[in-house]
Amino acid sequence: MARQFFVGGNFKMNGTKESVTKIVESLNAADLPANVSVVIAPPAPYISLAVEKNTQKTVEISAQNVYTKASGAYTGEISANQVLDLGATWTLTGHSERRTLIKESDEFIAEKTKFALEQGLSVILCIGETLEERKADVTLQICARQLDAVSKIVSDWSKIVVAYEPVWAIGTGLAATPEDAQETHKGIREHLAKTIGAEQAEKVQILYGGSVNGKNAVEFKDKVDVDGFLVGGASLKPEFVDIIKSRL
Ligand code: 13P
User: Fold this and answer.
1) Which pick of 34, 60, 81, 131 has the fewest CB atoms within 10 Å?
2) Coiled-coil ranges per the record (predicted)?
3) pTM for this entry
């Protein structure tokens, strides 16, 4: 079964009204393939702007983070329901920058994922190992642990896309090789087959993230378990369109 090619753009904490408008307008003007799903995640203050400016049917807007509750006394948190109210349809959860800098636990991330799905958002669930973990040869155990926290409390994975983002490859210019990414993605899918069942595991799109750019994206073309990318830095640049078109 063919899984649809999927490209996410995570703007992280970058941009202004002007630059976000420019990025969305350049996507509007691009001749994007009809069979590629594109999801862009601007900073929360610009979600509304991105939703309003976007005219591409294949482009959807995402939050970068949401909380585990709809509303209440949670100063500074982002509500999945408010994200939906703005017209966004996705959120990221578990990005390594939140796991490491904000110290979010596997369990907290799993709860956010569950709550976001229950409210009606689709979720890009980010996982991946640090350099130390890679050196210790525990990449798949780490990914399994991060996934298991979610599969323990979420049984329907039809609205989840997994993004494998090795921490050592993020923002470093050192992307994983297509062979390494394929091997890890295959391991992730095999693990998911054991926990959520082979049928669901076969359908889950697994994205690679970490220093993907307009040049190297095409090198992953024949990797059967690499179903797309989650792009950071390059999603702010015109080359993002080249990444979206890298499977043509
Ligand atoms: P870079 O593409 O900048 O390495 O970032 C990847 C990432 O963290 C996307 O979520």
Assistant:
1) 34
2) none
3) 0.98
